[in-house]
Amino acid sequence: MKRHALLIGLGLVLVLVFLGNAANFYHIGLVNKLDDILYDYRLRLTMPGGTDSRIVILDIDEKSLKEEGRWPWSRDRLALLMDKLFDGYGVAVVGFDVVFAEKDESSGFKVLQELGRNQLKDVPQFHSALAQIKPQLDYDNLFADKIKNRRVVLRYYFTSSAKGTEKSISGALPGAVFQPGTFKGRQVGFLLFDGYGGNLPELQQHAVGAGHFTQAPDSDGVVRRIPMIAEYGGAYYESLSLAVVRTLLGDAKLAPGFATSKSSGYAGLEWLEVTTAQGSLKIPVDRNVSTLVPYRGGRGSFRYLSLTDVLRDRIPQAELKNKIVLVGTSAPGLMDMRSTPVATVYPGVEVHANMISGILEQNLKQKPPYVLGAEVVLLLVTGVALSLILPLLSPVQATLLAFAALLAALAGNLAIWQFAGLAMPLAGGLLMILCLFALAMSFGYFVESRTKRQITGLFGQYVPAELVDEMSKNPEQVSMEGDSREMTILFSDVRGFTSISEKLDAKELTLLMNEFLTPLSRVIYKHRGTIDKYMGDCIMAFWGAPLSDPEHAKHAILAGIEMQRTLKELQPRFKERGWPEIHIGVGINTGRVSVGNMGSEVRVAYTVMGDAVNLASRLEGITKQYGAGVIVGENTRNTVADFVYRELDLVRVKGKDKPVAIYEPLGLAGEVDKAALDELKLFHQMLKLYRKQDWDQVELQLYNLQRMVPESLLYKVYAERAAYFRGSPPGADWDGVFVFQTK
User: How far is residue 519's CA from residue 510's CA, in Å, rounded to a whole number?
Assistant: First the structure.
């Protein structure tokens, strides 16, 4: 009960941590980042798809730039575009997603004016002609005349200057939609700016409307919402998408929508309302008077037409009649790209198109202030319930409950999004459930760790800790009862141990054996081996039990080779301490054996028994006869083809009637150098000649081999045999087998 109380207390502390984040007392970066990721995924999952046929984007694309020249184009061409769109195609409204901040001097009119003020100032005919052609050469006024009294909406932007830097102000602003003092006494969190980049005054003066597109991306740089109203100089200005909608609807009024509460009479600005004689449209806003962009789909969710095709009359009239036309660019070089939840590179003009479409369809998600309170209540109820219940459940029950809670949170959040249009935070709830579950499970883990340590202590004398971990995770794979299976067995023994022990006292000998056995045992553990026993200077190990190992033979050979390498690295340390050099032989064999707990009622041991075990021991015993560090039996060699082997001999060991081929693994294929491979090829040729009793050729080959490796005991052994058989031929029925009479 005490343990449960402690766990419940810790759980409630976790709940308080998440409640503080939800209530904005502080911010947990991981929660907020995950919330953004989940928002993006939820949005992509529920996007309606398809295209809004009311909206067409005239794209200043690569094709247009190639045919019309680089941007910006002369404004006489834009004036022509206005005539074509309104008079020729009959469009409903045109919104420009570009800013006309600089005067167009491409006509040369400015040069003519300079001439009139200087070289030709006394030529009346020049001044008369200049006055006549001015309307045709002043492209800015020409463009301004063409947008006059037409439903054309221009774009501008606001800026914020860093402290101590000069404010950036250029161009002209349109009229504000709400005048200073409109929101006096109301704590509305408008985004506040101190600079702007507007259009030329003559253009702004003649445009029916203008709207800002001021970037307000989230902390990760993603555009999820647009400020519908921005504050500058105490006045309030509408966004480009809102201006296009109001222009489309004609004489549309804009009013703020305040939710009232019984206590204070005010609960914050929650929506904007666009009203006409035909009805009204509501635009939900958050505390910063921003609206979530209702993305329809990925890039290309609206009809794109190349702007040059409109200028050159390649588009049928029906394609644009009564359409909302947005003029923007998807050309990478013009840098009007945004990062959005649906694409990391997304045309800014399409962001406006999505917002306009959402406003007209009234398909806008909202995150009103009361969402914060709802999240706090949900976290509190869910967190307290799980904190009280999870400590009482078994691991399986706790897992099922946590999974059900996660599923309910996901399903509920998605339903609220889809049917109520509310963007409820999700990450805090999910992380809280996972943390409470992890707390309960880890608590149970520490309580049960004593039992696991006991299991580790029992098996640690046989197998490495990582295999014990696997056994604890997969207990069904482990059996201490007798079993027959194919395994690989390794024996290693110190050569000349008797003479070594005679040179050292008992204390030094003990230190030597510990220094020797410990690193070799670690090598066996490293390669997933089980140490059966130490027999003085001998190590017996096996692979394939208690956990099955499909690559038991390969792991055993790798261990044997590394044992020899490790021992070589130990020799300098032994020499420093005045100890003699130690050399070992390693014998490895693969075969079917019996494995399990064996012994008496007094004492049992987990071990292996069988002919394959005996042969492994015999192979270790004959390593010194061939000067080989590791010898493997033919079953092992046939099981693992990953190594380069030297066939040493065909032998009949003591206690065995059937001869066996024995091999020395030289290393993994691909890791043995060319010189060693050439030497190996020469030796195998010699071995074939040896079994054919061609003693002349055998001696010739051995002569060459001994010149290559004079110290080789193997070549010396075969040279002595060849000399013996030359004098005492073995006979025509000789099978090439060498018989060992001793162990």
Answer: 15
Series of mean pLDDT values for 10-residue runs along the chain (743 residues): 74 90 86 91 90 92 89 89 94 94 73 61 62 69 92 94 83 92 83 92 94 86 93 94 94 84 58 90 91 90 93 92 93 78 90 94 87 88 91 87 94 92 90 91 68 58 64 56 87 88 85 91 92 90 89 96 95 90 94 84 79 94 94 96 95 83 94 93 95 93 93 94 91 86 62
What sign results for the dihedral spanned by CA atoms 60, 65, 67, 72?
positive
**3-class secondary-structure state, position 217:** coil
- 54 exposure class (CB count in 10 Å sphere: 0-12, 13-18, 19+): middle
- Count of Cβ atoms closer than 10 Å to residue 585 Cβ: 24
Residue ranges per structural domain of the chain? 2-48+368-442, 55-256+285-361, 477-672
Task: Supply the pLDDT for residue 368.
Answer: 79
- pLDDT value, residue 265: 45
* Rounded CA separation 678/684 (Å): 10
Helix or strand holding residue 279 (H, E): strand 279-284
- Return the pLDDT at 451: 46
Pairing of strands 530-535, 538-543: antiparallel
Which amino acid does the sequence have at 15? V
Distance CA 218, CA 36 (A): 9
Q: Which two tokens stand for residue 732?
A: 């025509």
**Is residue 310 within 8 Å of residue 84, measured between CB atoms?**
yes
Report the pLDDT value the prediction gives residue 266, as an integer from 0 to 100: 45
Which residues in 623-639 are b (16+ Cβ under 10 Å) and which e?
Answer: bebbbbbbbbbbbbbeb
Distance CA 137, CA 130 (A): 9
C-alpha–C-alpha distance, residues 617 and 230, integer Å: 87
* CATH 3.40.1440.60 at 477-672, yes or no: no
β-pairing verdict for 538-543 and 483-494? antiparallel
Distance in angstroms (rounded) separating the CA atoms of residues 99 and 296: 26
DSSP state of 580: P
Q: Which of 5, 11, 7 is nearest to 432 (CA)?
A: 11
Q: Are 315 and 58 in contact (CB under 8 A)?
A: no
Strands (E), 60-207: 93-96, 152-159, 169-170, 191-193, 195-197
Calpha distance 139→79 (Å, rounded): 8
**HSE of 407 in the Cβ direction (CA atoms, 13 Å)?**
6
Rounded CA-CA distance 484/491 in Å is: 20
pTM reported for the whole predicted model: 0.59
Cβ atoms of 339 and 365 closer than 8 Å:
no
Residue 332: its pLDDT value, please?
73
DSSP for 356-406 reads HHHHHHT---B--THHHHHHHHHHHHHHHHHHHHGGGS-HHHHHHHHHHHH
Query: In angstroms, rounded to a whole number, what is the distance separating the alpha carbons of residues 89 and 656?
Result: 102
Write down the pLDDT at residue 263.
44
Q: Collapse the DSSP code of 662 into the 3-class scheme (helix H, G, I; strand E, B; otherwise coil) and give the result.
A: strand
- pLDDT number for residue 40: 92
How far apart (Å, rounded) are the C-alpha atoms in residues 318 and 321?
A: 5
Q: Which pLDDT score is estimated for 280?
A: 92
